[in-house]
Amino acid sequence: MDSHTEAPHVPPEELDGFPVAAKSLLSERRLHTLKQGDMFGVFDQTGDILFGDGIADGLYFHDTRYLSCLSMTLQGVRPILLSSTVRENNVLLSVDLTNTDIEGPDGSPEGRMNHDLLHVRRSRFLWNHVCYERVEIRNFDVEPRTAQLDIRFLADFADLFEARGSTRPRRGTQRPPEVADNQVTLSYDGLDNRRRTTVLRFWPPPAALDARHAAYRFDLAPGTRVLIHYEVACDPDGTPALQPNRRFLTGAVEARRALRLSSSRAAAIATSNEIFNEAIRRCICDIYMLLTDKKTGPYPYAGVPWFSTAFGRDALITAMLTLWLDPEIARGVLNYLARHQARIEDPAADAEPGKILHEVRHGEMAELGEVPFRHYYGSIDSTPLFVMLAGQYLDRTGDVALLTTIWPNIERAIDWIEQYGDRDDDGFVEYGRRNKDGLINQGWKDSYDSVFHADGTLAEGPIALCEVQAYVYAARRAAATIGRRLGKTAYAERQDHLAESLRVAFNARFWIEDLGTFALALDGHKQPCRVRSSNAGHILLTDIATPDRVPRLVEGLMKRSSFTGWGIRTIPEGEARYNPMAYHNGSVWPHDNALIGLGLARHGYRDEAAQLFRGMFDAAFYTDLRRLPELFCGFTRNRAEGPVRYPVACSPQAWAAATLPALVQSTLGLSFDPATVTVHFERPRLPDFLDEMTLYNLEVGGDQVTVRLVRVGEEVAINVVERTETIRVQIST
Q: What residues form DSSP beta bridges with 74?
């Protein structure tokens, strides 16, 4: 992320029990990331993978680093970087390099080469757990030149948690490398009795090849070029029939086609602002790059590099933010989480019957129990969010068939809320970890210090977070709505009754009159944490707050102490633990603002939602690739400067990528009625940086409409450009 300000230091304990090492600061280097399926890669600007303690670089598969070093030299030295970029569709990394000045032997003029005579282009993509690369070398000199290219590689098979800073007392066994004419096989036998294998294949066969090095030497006439192809396969099934050069071409076509096919489901957005068009295209491409096809449908992995796996909360929120855009994402998330819902009590995994997943890991440390995240359920909000999303999905699609299929899972989730979530029968849902190595805090702000009292004292559990009570309220309302659609009237009436009881109790216990907001949480002694927070903004996603309190809550969120100019801080200035460089105690998270924006719109605060939209778009303007990161520091906005980078922020991150699309929905007041096949716009607004917006292929019940919106002063005019016969567009002013 670009900024004129130096990145701050992050203490290792910032990310709870499994820290990201400070030496792996992602903000200090402009890294490139690729992701496809269960594989992702982190590369430097030249396309290399640097090797070192605490360095994030690598090629990862199923939470293991299958390639820990990849370096290329030209004429014995690292070439000069000309440019590098990940194509807009996120499929291909392209890097342009050239030679530096090369001295002849012992400084003699013979063999000397001036810089910028040899051009090298590296093209790389991932497909079906293989990393493909083509290296093109071209001689632009008027004389023949000999090009010497060396590729060095190493596979340490480090677990992802090792790569991000954890230490292990024991590791498995590295097997002896196997070297053939054009192939090197590197293997590791883990302590979990699994063999992990990296196979590198080169074409044409190198002049020299050993366990860590491939060497090429070419004589190039003026103006001629040569191509080298190699691939890195993770746990391959066998030797492919085609050589790497042929597989590069077919794989590139298949990778582009697959991404184009999946993203074609989404409604398209085009506006009068070309920079915003770049940002929204990047959002859509990032969302679909992070989707991983499961047997249950598409599932958004949380983010690269540290969270490229299935997370419950992240996927549920990403699905909510993109529901208007592509309901198939929500369908895939609901199916997957229903299948992985906890069935038994397992304290080691913080699992209880009916609870929805927090995280899945496939690495050696997870398999051995060295980290508790193999199938981990330490999330207090995933379960109500699951039911909440199910209700929203039904409202958006009318897909009763899916809701009928997962109804038993919805019932079990509600049962968990009643039997396990409410630990002391006071009507509120609390958390407290059952595994001493699990997460201390189990809301979305899961840093060890993210829940505290007004004097800064950390809250003791069990802890009832304010936003979780709002999610539970919405979950009960959703269960009631779904129940009625499925003919379960008595069940629905009970859920409505319990939701209303929760609403009354919540407003009585959580509201802090002198602060004009809801308490961050109730601690284990039922004492309120009298702290202003963005958590309270999530309450606006529901109707749990009494109407008289909503204006004061909104006013507090939009004050200068809270709103930085980029977005709303997690904790506003003036609170005891406020720190704009802290992970959860003063930073700005795009998805947090997207959820608050949807809540603002729900209660009619379109102008405030547009303010958040403006801030997030401006932040994207300053970031590399127009890509919003996981978070940035919460310093107040300065003129002509971008937001201050957070040093270990993941980028891309699924719910960050979904932020701008969600803010489009919030400012337009966009909703859908599948029963009448209608698209609704309620008091639509366009922010001041957008004069026009066209939404292509908005879909309801299989019908589609394309609409054009034009800002006229403070009003918005809407024209239907194209539609199928039965779909309608309705505007409320």
A: 77, 149
Q: Which is more confident, 590 or 163?
A: 590
Contact 153, 69 (CB under 8 A): yes
Higher pLDDT, 52 or 703: 703
Give per-residue pLDDT as tens, 657-686: 999 999 999 999 999 999 999 999 999 999
Distances, alpha carbon 3 to alpha carbons 28, 30, 621, in Å: 11, 12, 11
Residue 184 pLDDT exceeds 70: yes
Q: Is the pLDDT of residue 688 over 80?
A: yes
Helix (H, G, I), strand (E, B) or coil at 711: strand
pLDDT tier at 10 (50, 70, 90 boundaries)?
A: very low
Contacts of 447 (CB under 8 A, 6+ apart): 14, 15, 16, 441, 582, 583, 584, 585
Residue 21 has pLDDT above 70, yes or no: no
* Share in percent of the chain as helix, strand, coil (round to 5): 30, 25, 40
What residues contact residue 490 under an 8 Å CB cut-off, 6+ apart? none
Distance CA 576, CA 454 (A): 6
Query: Sign of torsion, CA 572 573 575 579?
Result: positive
**Which CATH number is 33-260 given?**
2.70.98.40
| CA angle (424 as vertex; 595, 406 as ends), nearest 5 | 50
pLDDT at 26 (0 to 100): 52
By CB atoms closer than 10 A (0-12, 13-18, 19+), residue 630 is buried
More confident residue, 592 or 18: 592
For the chain, the structural domain boundaries read 33-260
pLDDT at residue number 3:
34
The residue among 466 and 264 whose pLDDT is bigger is 466
For residue 511, pLDDT beyond 70: yes
The single residue listed with the structure tokens 């047997």 is 295
pLDDT, one tens digit per residue, over 544-581 is: 999 999 999 999 999 999 999 999 999 999 999 999 99
**Mean per-residue pLDDT over the chain, rounded:** 93
Cβ atoms < 10 Å from Cβ of 733: 9
Assess contact for 549 and 503: CB atoms under 8 A: no
Which residue type occupies 242? L
Nearest to 599 by CA among 544, 646, 636: 544
Rounded to 10 degrees, the C-alpha dihedral 319/325/331/332 comes to: -70
Strand segments (E) across 16-102:
32-36, 39-43, 58-61, 64-67, 69-74, 80-86, 93-98
* Range list of H helices, 273-381: 274-290, 312-321, 327-339, 364-368
Mean pLDDT calculated for residue range 110-127 = 91
Identify the DSSP state of 306: T
Neighbours of 489 (CB within 10 A): 11
Q: What are phi and psi of 661, to 5 degrees?
A: -55, -40
Q: Can you spell out the DSSP letters for 391-409?
A: HHHHHHH--HHHHHHHHHH
Torsion from C-alpha of 604, 610, 611, 616, nearest 10 degrees: 130
Question: Residues 278-304: what's their mean pLDDT?
Answer: 96
- d(CA 581, CA 588) in angstroms, rounded, equals 10
279 vs 274: CA distance, rounded Å: 9
Q: How far is CA 576 from the centre of its chain?
A: 30
pLDDT given at position 479? 98
- Tokens encoding 682: 């309620």
Candidates 15, 97, 12, 540; CA nearest to 307 is 15
Q: Which pLDDT score, from 0 to 100, does residue 329 have?
A: 98
| Local structure of 380: helix, strand or coil | coil
Tokens of 724: 């199928």
